[in-house]
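This section describes the prediction task in plain terms. A model, or a person checking by hand, is given the sequence of a single protein chain and must write out its three-dimensional structure as a string of tokens. No templates, partner chains or ligands are provided. The sample shown here is typical of the held-out split.
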Amino acid sequence: MKTIQDIFVGFEEEYGQKYNMSKEQQKVFRHIKICRTEESGYHKIICESCGYEKITYNSCKDRHCPVCQNFKKEQWINDRKSEVLGSKYFHVVLTLPKELGNIAIQNKKMIYSNMFKAAGETIKKLCENKKYMGAVPAITIVLHTWGQNLEFHPHIHMIISAGGLTKDNKWIKSSEKFFVPVKILSKVFRGKFLSYLKENYKDELLKFYGQAEEYKNNTKFRILINKLYSMNWYSYVKKPFGNADAIIEYLGRYTHKIAITNNRIVKVEDGKVFFKYKDYKDNSKIKVMSLEAVEFIRRFLMHVLPTKFVKIRYYGICANRNKKTKLKLSQKLTNILNNPLYVKLTKEELLKKITNGMAFLCHVCNKETLKLKEINKIMSYKT
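The expected answer:
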């Protein structure tokens, strides 16, 4: 089976003749290209029982790499288990309209930050309103920037507890339906986001080039803003999850997801990449589409995040400043504290879980006595 690494290696020269990469893209490209190869360095594992030695090449640990997310995902899920509430949860999706695509891709850090601020403030404001709930819920927000065809499609996934903490420290449970009408949610998000965008423009912080260069003209920018205010921005709410365990596992699939994984690639043939995608316009049927390999790489690299950009953020009672106080109180009020189902696993236990118990098992003597004895680091893993 062909992998994204194979495509990068095979078409690097052809891609370089047509496109230039940013420094962030160059780093990600190199990491994926040499991941688990001799160039990435190695670590030696020795069985303390029979003396068997094994050399394994290092992973790149880049958050955009399709083969380096599994442990990080399990680690994140493990950490969140101690923060779960005895509550149902809603899954909410908020999306930027396609008219903002060119501006967003040229100002990623600023636009993505605006999305987080607008979404977090929208939910907090509406939830505190007694008309809807009159309490602050737990909110986790995750940024995604792609659609199934790898095109640029910035949107955020929000996981929101079906209930919240009031000002006088009481827990209020919400109804089975999402407590804020979707149209109102979308309208408030739109207003807050565009308010931030106008501030950015006023402070001359936005970059415009190529197809977006016309927005350097103040009149044309105002026409765009007015058009965006008049549009209905797409938002979506799923039915609440039945229990906290389900929501954590579900969340893990979203938090460490990347634009496309190796298992979606069907084949690489005649300079084209064939991959599976879900066609939402046709009852979510799984289909196969093809792209020229150079175009496939271009689309993949569009989704490289700005350096050190945090793509998972917490608001409401699970915000970092509230974890030791309001979150613990909410856990107590929802009868979830000290639930043995959510005991954290050690790093060794996580490795065993991911490898189905094979992490420390020697295939020669069949004893769990494999130990890391030597490591050779070559590359920098900072992304």
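For orientation: Residues 4-64+363-377 form one domain.
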